[in-house]
TrEMBL record, chains A, B:
Record Gene3D superfamilies: Farnesyl Diphosphate Synthase
CDD domains named in the record: Trans_IPPS_HT
Pfam families per record: polyprenyl_synt (PF00348)
Protein name according to UniProt: Geranylgeranyl pyrophosphate synthase
Family the entry assigns: Belongs to the FPP/GGPP synthase family.
GO cellular component, as recorded: cytoplasm
SUPFAM superfamilies with a match to the protein in the record: Terpenoid synthases
Species in which this protein is naturally found: Lupinus angustifolius (Narrow-leaved blue lupine)
Alphabetic keyword roster: Carotenoid biosynthesis, Isoprene biosynthesis, Magnesium, Metal-binding, Transferase
Region: Disordered, residue numbers: 1-20
Organism placement in taxonomy: Eukaryota, Viridiplantae, Streptophyta, Embryophyta, Tracheophyta
Cofactor: Mg(2+)
Composition skew (Basic and acidic residues), residue ranges: 1-11
């Protein structure tokens, strides 16, 4: 005869069994993004000199899905670390992403007035402060990961800092932006150049996020390199999907101006491959990305698999 | 009776005795600056994407006395390290100094067309590339210290990276520049605010240079803190002397436009204290700085003592 306790245990086990395959991605994203937002708010306090901290917080806390920090935390957890191990690094990556948006929006670069429906940083604080807010976020990203990461060996922190820096400089964001600027008005931009731009402008920081999470979480070299390739495929896919959405969705559906690439006469995947082939390419990149996770426990890899699918099938 | 060998030895000892107090500062500076220039040239190679590396090298290799990297190396050697231990960090500090010059010269900041007699970075490469060259130098500074420092424990490298980042952000260069910008046109800028600006705009990176050198060289906490105070006094003195030279020397003597502060109606030490009291203040800061070195072997401390005197008594 079953005791009451046994019945309860069985029910719990049953529910656990039911829960396992049904990974709740939306809940996961909401909870992780909430933790990240809290940590960002605590990392950059409003203190003296007020104006520069106001400017940094204005763009850093302007919302966004926090895809990069969540990728960092998910990679850390996948290899055995926990959220708190990766949180400082996850925030550092979002600071760098924010810096790149502030500087890219400047009049001397893309000259954008709006970002996520709000006036851009230089529109509110002036160009001088916007340049400095970007510089300060970039520097603080390195201070934060160096000073606030705990429970990790200094060897791994140094390695993570090297990866973080590489994802920004002339092998990362800056390289992508420079080649993008140099390609404006060129009529012969082919697939190779387009891929270079996106691998640097978009994929590099996603790669940094995942690799840094894996390093800080204690991942083996093999696992770190698997995750690096996963992130590189996801990063490129992110941009292919973005290009397709720009020509297939309305501004209302996207929540931002649609058709911007066409107006700017920018080379995109749909322009070079057509929409159908671009969609096929994105699906292939998603498969290639997920293939890199085959050596991991699928239950533990669920968040990264879901993140890849989310990026592949998003509608805005 | 003395053998020939003894005579030679005596002569050598005599010459050593003679040499000891006569530390050849000019030779020291020339040799260290040459090593630093070589290391900077090797650190940022001209590679793809060409244009951004050209822009970075244009400003990084434009000359200058390399005071910050030499301070870093001298502090490292003082606590028992050697030149090669500190070289990557010394180069990182010069990269950050160069980044701050490129961004400060931008039209939205100080709008300068000339720097060390050459057109400023944005005049040659355009504003967009100048912003990105600064960003890339800032990021690369952290990559370089993290990846290329050898023979030092990772704990000390992480600590040095924390110090480097702090010297740039809202407790360093950026704070000084922001408060300087906010003080333009104010009639009530007093000594306290002036000191805040200079401690951040000028002293912070000098402090970073010395402290990082001492950390990487294996200095004790006490020695690191003595050297921190030394550098802070020297940094403030650097600026007081600069202010005095601006009003007492001709453009020809300075090798740059004299009287700039007067024209810009900037608050300076001579304006608040008069020239004589400013000179006295600089002398006091030099004494206070050197007082911090009293716990070190004076022969080993000779380079830092000479550097402080050089900054105090320079004529341009």
């Amino acid at each position: 005869m079953l005791t009451k306790e046994d019945t309860v245990k069985d029910k719990e086990e049953e529910e656990e069994e039911k829960e396992k395959p049904r990974f709740n991605f939306n809940l996961y994203m909401v909870e992780k993004a909430r933790s990240v937002n809290q940590a960002l708010n605590d990392a950059v306090l409003l203190r003296e000199p007020q104006k520069i901290h106001e400017a940094m917080r204005y763009s850093l806390l302007a919302g966004g899905k926090r895809v990069r920090p969540v990728l960092c935390i998910a990679a850390c957890e996948l290899v055995g670390g926990n959220e708190s191990t990766a949180m400082a690094a996850a925030c550092s990556i979002e600071m760098i992403h924010t810096m790149s948006l502030i500087h890219d929006d400047l009049p001397c670069m893309d000259n954008d007035d709006l970002r996520r429906g709000k006036p851009t940083n230089h529109k509110v604080f002036g160009e001088d402060i916007a340049v400095l807010a970007g510089d300060a976020l970039l520097a603080f990203a390195f201070e934060h990961i160096a000073v606030s990461t705990s429970g990790v060996s200094p060897e791994r922190i140094v390695a993570a800092i090297g990866e973080l820096a590489k994802s920004v400089g002339t092998e990362g964001l800056v390289a992508g932006q420079v080649v993008d600027i140099n390609s404006e008005g060129l009529s012969d931009v082919g697939l190779e150049r387009l891929e270079f731009i996106h691998l640097h402008k978009t994929a590099a920081l996603l790669e940094g996020a995942v690799v840094i999470g894996a390093i800080l979480g204690g991942g083996s070299n093999e696992h770190v390199e698997n995750l690096r390739m996963f992130a590189r495929y996801v990063g490129l896919m992110f941009q292919v999907v973005d290009d397709v959405l720009d020509v297939t969705k309305s501004s209302k559906e996207l929540g931002k101006t649609a058709g911007k690439d066409l107006v700017a006469d920018k080379v995109t995947y749909p322009k070079l491959l057509g929409i159908e082939k671009s969609n096929e390419f994105a699906q292939k990149l998603n498969r290639d990305a997920q293939q890199q996770l085959s050596g991991f426990d699928p239950v533990k890899a669920a968040p990264l698999i879901a993140l890849a699918n989310y990026i592949a099938y998003r509608q805005n």
